[in-house]
Amino acid sequence: MESSHRVILRFVDGKMLKGLVKELKLTEDYLFLEDESDHQLKVRLKELKAIFFVKTFEGNRTHQEKKTFANTPPASKRVFVKFKDGETMMGFVEGEIPWQRGFFLESMKEKGFYLIPVDEDSNNIKILIITSAVKDVAMIGS
């Protein structure tokens, strides 16, 4: 049986959609989202800013998100992401950095990369950052 992931899609135009994704392949140009009404929606990746894999759709409105790095998990790199719309995000990229050193956008081979939130208590489990929505990424520390 295929498992589904609870996701919140954030679009570059500011729109948001909640639903379930069974399979997500970055080799494809789109994904299928099952929305709250059980409709299958085909969404083009390049229309997205990020895909948030969440614990619950509701989240915890009283939770104050921690915005500082505490402990860096093994084999992780601290990164600061700036989107084209000005929003910024911090987190960890596990394993190898998916871009070449130097100018990031030209050398990005993937359509996206996973960011692990700084705050372990966040509603976000991981975030798939869509490369085309990113203005800059900087590694923090060594």
Task: Please provide a written account of the structure.
With 142 residues, this protein is an all-beta fold. It has two domains: 5-54, SH3 type barrels (Roll), CATH 2.30.30; 76-139, Roll (SH3 type barrels), CATH 2.30.30. The protein is built from one helix and ten strands; from the N terminus they run βββββββαβββ. It has a ten-stranded antiparallel beta sheet, with no helix packed on it.
Report on the biggest sheet.
Answer: 10 strands, antiparallel
- Count of strand segments: 10
**Termini gap:** 41 Å
Question: What is the CATH top level name of the largest domain?
Answer: Mainly Beta
- Work out the helix count: 1
Query: Element order, helices and strands?
Result: EEEEEEEHEEE
Structural class: mainly beta
Query: In one word, what is the shape?
Result: globular
Helical content (DSSP H or I, runs of 4+): under 10%
Strand order within the widest sheet? 4-3-2-1-5-9-8-7-6-10
| Portion in strands | over 45%
CATH topology category name of the largest domain: SH3 type barrels
Just name the CATH architecture of the largest domain: Roll
Low-confidence spans: pLDDT under 50, at least 5 residues? none
Mean pLDDT score: 83
Please tell me how large the radius of gyration is: 15 Å
User: How many domains comprise the coordinates?
Assistant: 2
